[in-house]
Amino acid sequence: MKQGLSLRVSQHLALTPQLQQSIRLLQLSTLEMAQEVEQMLDENPFLERSEEMAERETFGLEQTDVPVSAGEQIADASVPEVTASPAPSSPDSVSASTDAAGDGDGLEGKLDGATPVEESWEGDGTVEIAPDDSEWGGDAPARNSGSGDGDDSATAADLARAPVSLQDHLHEQARCLRLSEEDRAALYFLIESLNDDGYLEEPLAELADAWLHLSGTPQLVGDPQDSLEAREALTQRLGVALQLLQHMEPSGVGARDLAECLRLQILELRNTAEARAALAICGQPLELIAKRDVKRLCNLCGIDDETVRAALGLIARLEPKPGRRFVDVERNVVVPDVIVTHAGRGFKVTLNPDVMPRLRVHDVYANAMRQNRGGRDNGGEAGHAAMQQRLQEARWFIKNIQQRFDTILRVSSAIVERQRNFFMHGELAMRPLVLREIADELGLHESTISRVTTAKYMATPFGTYELKYFFGSSLGTETGGNASSTAVRALLKQFIAAEEAARPLSDNQLSDLLREQGIECARRTVAKYREALRIAPANLRKSL
């Protein structure tokens, strides 16, 4: 093989640490973003949370509250003229490079072969306090510091509003029973073993073994006969405690399966022919109840058709999950990133100040860096360079957070402008929209729009939706236009809600109804949309 030297010119992509951080922050959800901020506050001494109100920095979001175009002047003088998209930021604004910092795999075509990129946080090497070191997120309310005269009353109010768990509710009832210490301990153990729905999923024998292991009972390592007797005795005690548990409120708690849960609730009702029939039906395979197979249930239970239908109606009114009303729904609350409100004849898009962290560079430490520029006193040149890099990291973190919210705001404003009919008339007026349309309008890449719309939520007059909700494929119409799949699903819900209970609409009939509205939608597509809406097929929707 002959060796030689050759010169070759090529282009390649290089992601700086700043760009990598910007990409990562852009795709984080609100909760993940808050965790990232807390972690950075712990790791970087130059970064601190500001509790004081301050003016927005010069590089900040000058267009945080951007009204969306309504096609005409807003009547309200307090609302500025409606624009189609946020006004461009200042030349120093990092929003001008949103696309570059917002997507990693969407940077094709933006190559840096001419200008090499040095992967460093050092920036320009200055340690002066720049104007953009000031507080960011000044519009956000300060977090309570935990001091003040009203703290005790606020805490008491929070405790009063705190939901009661299923276990707490059952323990309160158990305290009213006169039990021995052993029986009370067994009842406590069963209550703590319930799942969120109020079911006891593990058999009593396994629970007895778990209790013996937790208590460290010596019989387990002694004579096998003694160990077996200990297990049997404890299983019997748990069986007695289970009887007590299953007589507590809510009715059906402590059941091992759905059939037992239904039987426990039926036993609490009056002893009528309907209740006795329902009790007999619950002893049959639950698939027959789900399918409402009246004929087979009549044959298996020896009950006439009318009684079976009445019993099935009674079973339908029972609660299959006794612990449902004790579930803490607060942990499922979605905090919106963007809020859309009416503004005159248009709509106003604003960032939610509650999710915007208020951060700034620590003035004391930054001043110390400026005064000790040479670094001769503490740690020498190497220590000074390391601290300078941490300072630059803090600055970039603040800018990347601001850029994240700026991008979210721009995308949200474009979505509201495109889906203006939805905000006026609801989901039936939703128009087809794909990521490329927003990307082309804002000059961003589709991957950037995908990151922005994932796990980000918008509060609208009709509820809170993920930003991806406003994007949907199109279906053809007889007039040659397009209808959004979201609007078609809403139309299907309307058709099903208005159907006769005794004669529900099949997927073919729903397809025909859509065709009458000028929308071409095949039966399989209707079935797919119906399943996505979690609507049962016609045979299961049929009223008894």
3D architecture notes:
The protein is an alpha+beta fold and 544 residues long. The chain has four domains: 17-108 and 335-448, no CATH class; 166-245, no CATH class; 258-325; 473-541, Homeodomain-like (Arc Repressor Mutant, subunit A), CATH 1.10.10. 46% of the residues lie in helices and 6% in strands. It is built from 22 helices and nine strands. The protein has helices at 17-26, 30-43, 98-102, 151-161, 166-174, 181-192, 204-215, 224-245, 258-267, 273-282, 286-291, 294-301, 305-316, 363-371, 380-418, 420-425, 435-442, 446-453, 485-497, 507-516, 523-532, 538-541, and strands at residues 47-49, 66-68, 338-343, 346-351, 359-361, 457-460, 463-466, 474-476, 482-484. The strands form three sheets. The protein has a five-stranded mixed β-sheet, with helices on one face. A hairpin with a 2-residue loop joins β6 and β7 (463-466). α10 (273-282) crosses α13, α17 (435-442) crosses α18 and α20 crosses α21 (523-532). The protein is extended. Mean pLDDT is 76; it is low at 53-66, 68-119, 122-129, 138-157 and 218-222.
